[in-house]
């Protein structure tokens, strides 16, 4: 008997099944046929929602980026807090991110380093406009002085990549180090 599900439910089911198989078998070794077989559906159903495995993966990653960033975006735009309070909250969120990430194990699995780097870049790209907006608001209020909020937001986000991937320090030390660099950029001071 054919089971009909709402399109968004079915689409999410395909994404979740694909990510499970990508983790188990590897991205390259998983085909759309494998995903359909795991779901016990015809392969054409997967292609109804996604033109290719790459499109399916990109959709899953975009969804995951939004999920991972939702708490950060809320903290960035929480104007009831001072900039320091928001930075402190974002530091706490960064330190706890691994424990709440739905696909953490997939992106940190040995052999998935390139996919993790792609995820990192997508997270930066997603957060830059939010950081830029808040920096511009702070500039307009006279709380900070910047020549270019857009470039500064990009530098803050993309500049963290090397530090955050340096496992010679624990996560708390990396986050504290980045907070000090950001304070230097925004205020010209070190804590």
UniProtKB/TrEMBL annotation:
Signal peptide: none annotated. Keywords: DNA-binding. One of its GO terms (molecular function) is DNA binding. Residues 8-68 form the HTH tetR-type domain. PROSITE patterns: HTH_TETR_2. Residues 31-50 bind DNA. Pfam families: TetR_N. PANTHER family: ACREF/ENVCD OPERON REPRESSOR-RELATED, ACREF_ENVCD OPERON REPRESSOR-RELATED. This is Biofilm operon icaADBC HTH-type negative transcriptional regulator IcaR. It comes from Clostridium oryzae.
